[in-house]
Structure formats: C-alpha cells, structure tokens
Design goal:
The protein is an alpha/beta fold and 443 residues long. The protein is 35% helix and 21% strand. The strands form four sheets. A seven-stranded mixed sheet has the order 9-10-12-6-13-14-16, with helices on one face. A hairpin with an 8-residue loop joins strand 9 and strand 10. Helix 10 packs parallel to helix 11, helix 11 packs across helix 12 and helix 14 packs across helix 15.
Amino acid sequence: INAEYMGVARPLVQYLAAHRVHVTLADSNAESADRVASGLGGVTPMGLNVSETAEVESLVKRADAVVSMLPFTLHSIPAQLAIRNRKHFLTTSYVSTEMRKLDQAARDEGVMLINECGLDPGLDHMSAKRVIDSIHRAGDQLVGFESFCGGLPVPEVADNPLAYKFSWSPRGVLLAALNGAKWRADGTSAGVPEGSLWEALWSVPVKGFAAPFVGVPNRDSTQYLDAYGVSGCRDFVRGTLRYEAWPPVISALIRLGWLALSPPPLPGQSFAANMLALSGANSEINHSDAAAVRRCTAAKLGAKEETTRIVDAMDWLGLLDSNTVVEAPTLLDAVCDLMLAKMQYAPGERDMIVMRHAFKVAQSTGKQRMRTSTLVSRGSPDGTTAMSKTVGLPVAIACRQVLSGNWSSRSGVIIPVDEDVYTPILDELEGLGIAFEETDAEA
C-alpha cells in the first residue's frame, strides 16, 4: 500500500518478486503503482484509496501478509483489517499510540504487527541490539550508547549552503526540526523543548570522512532502554546525522519564525518583506534594500561568528528576495517550496546513508572498552537511492520471513530487537551489500 512512498517501494517489490512472491501493489494514484511495477513479473499494480475500507478489506482477505507504506497516521486502518482477517501486517513506521492499542487484539488472533522495520527505525535497532546482545553474552555491561543515522548527499554533491538535498517533499523534515527530544545523560533524564532541538548537538566522527558529522537527538530515546535490555545504561541517545552546515541554518529559521505554522505570511508581500517583519525591523525600511534586509536579519540573529554564513544561506535559498511574493498557507510551507525548488537531487547525483553506533562497555574485569558499529551505504549508479534500499529491503526480508512461517510463535506489536528476528534480516542484507563495520578498542 502506497507504491511510491519516498521511492522505497521499488526495492521492496523487486525483492519480493525475485523470490516468487506475488505482490498486489496499491496506490491512490494508479500510474504510480504502474511505474513501480514496470518490468517486474508477478506484480499486480492498481489504484486504491485507503479510505475505501470495503475494497481494502477485499484485498486483505486475498493476501497472506500486508505491508503498509502509508503515512503513519493511516496505518491503523489496514492494520485493523489485517487483524480481523488474521493476516500479518508490516510497516517501517514508529509504533504509534493507535498501533499500540491494537496489540491485544492482534495477540488474540495470532497476528503479528511488525513495526519499525525499515532504516531508522529498523536497521538502527537490529544492528545496535546485535552488539548489545554480544556484550551481555560476554558478561559485560553497556554503560554508554550513542546512535546516529542520516540520509545525506554524498560529499561531492553536498554543494549548497545547507549541505543537504531532497528526493521528496521537505515538509516532514522541517516539521521534525521543531520537535523536542529526551535522552539519558550521566544516569539522569535530559532533554530540550520543542523549537530548541538544534541547540543540542553531538560531534560524530565516521571513518572515511574528513570532518565529523553533527548529531541531533531524535524524539524520546529513553523509551528504548527497556526494549534494548539496558535499563541501567547511564548515557543513552539516539538521533539524526547532518553535515555541520545544516544545524545553524535550521536553528536560525526556527528562531526567526520561518518554520511557524501560524500566523500566515504577510498577504501579497515578498520574502524580503516577511523577513523584515520577522526580524522586528522598522516598518519604514524598504524591502527592496537588500543591504538593509541583510543587516536586520543579522541583527535579529545576534553577533555570532557564523551569522554571516547563515544570512548568506538564507539569501541563496530566496528568503531575502524582494521580487518574489510568498504564496503559501504558512511560513513553513513557503520555506518548503523554496527548498523543493533549489535543493533537489539532480539526475546522476547520489545519496548515502550513514549510521554509527558507539557502545561504552564496562567489562567484568573492571576495564572499559569502546565498540562501534558503522554503516555507510551509497546510492547505485542506476539511480536506486541508498534510502530506498535501506528502508525497503529490511521490511521486504521481514515479509518473506513471515510468509515462510519462521516467526509463527509471535503475535502482537513487534519491533525487531530479538535475535531470531534481526539475525536473518541482517545476514541477508550483508549478502546484498548492506553491511556494518564493527570496531573494538580500549576506552
């Protein structure tokens, strides 16, 4: 369901078709389903609106398993139908409150609701838990854990002032930038409120890259302490990776109010006029005076070393343009439109996935060690993105495991943190060229 979500359905469907699994591929746009299914045998594309529950249920009844790539807010519709018809259900999304409420009903019917089985969440859980379980088998204890993952342009095409590019709408990324976060530091709860996320940064070195990446915490890391079996871990954070150019610009956009959902932009006014208003500038300043707009923006941001670079980035993006009228329902959507116009991948440009876990281990001997597990996956020359492979293939492999009856004793809401679940997925991914490199050294 949802054939072209972030482009990840193609590797998913290719994998299943190659293993002789018949796939009914449904999308609200039949042409999207046709494109994804093009050239693949055993794949039936079709148009389908998920709100048409009778038609969705008809398909569910004929299936052995359901994979939903819908927005997470819509998963509960096919999930409930899957439970009612005793069909297993898989998705790459975080477990939502609505999904969690279906746990007992799924258990009663012997149905698996497998969630968080993509990249992040998904491969992050599996690869981290593989190392953590090995630590515990050795009789040692995990005392510190940092996990960061990001989808980024490869360095040679990270060539704009924000060092970031999109292959789909930026709106979700911008909304996520407004979140708060929670983690554990030195044995106690730590966090930042909504709107302050990009003030809490980690330096994340990765082998093979000249400069460290920047990590920012993601959501509530502490909810995974029990799932990972490390409730006593003193430092525990999960987050997102970016190049160092991204955080200061996003933080400035938030402080200026450009990522607000209300009030709406000034009607009929240019980006420069809106920037002056957000900067609290004197109303007599002319929005066509580019130097004045830059001064007012810089004054609002404060006298920081990086302010000039931030204002330059905003200028490049178009936020200081006095000729273009803002035509968007919200300021955030206005920024989204600019990013979509100027920050898309060009034909032939490749993305990459970088994931790095760091484990601080207290050994039973009293010594401490630092272990790491790192994945760097680049997009293929044929245009297949690293994002599509690392999101689509884990859930595809999980689906084939379900169809083979390998996890038949399980039911209810599941995330892939148990050895019998993550091992076959990680092993098969290694054969497909998606492999983690692990290191172990004295701390």
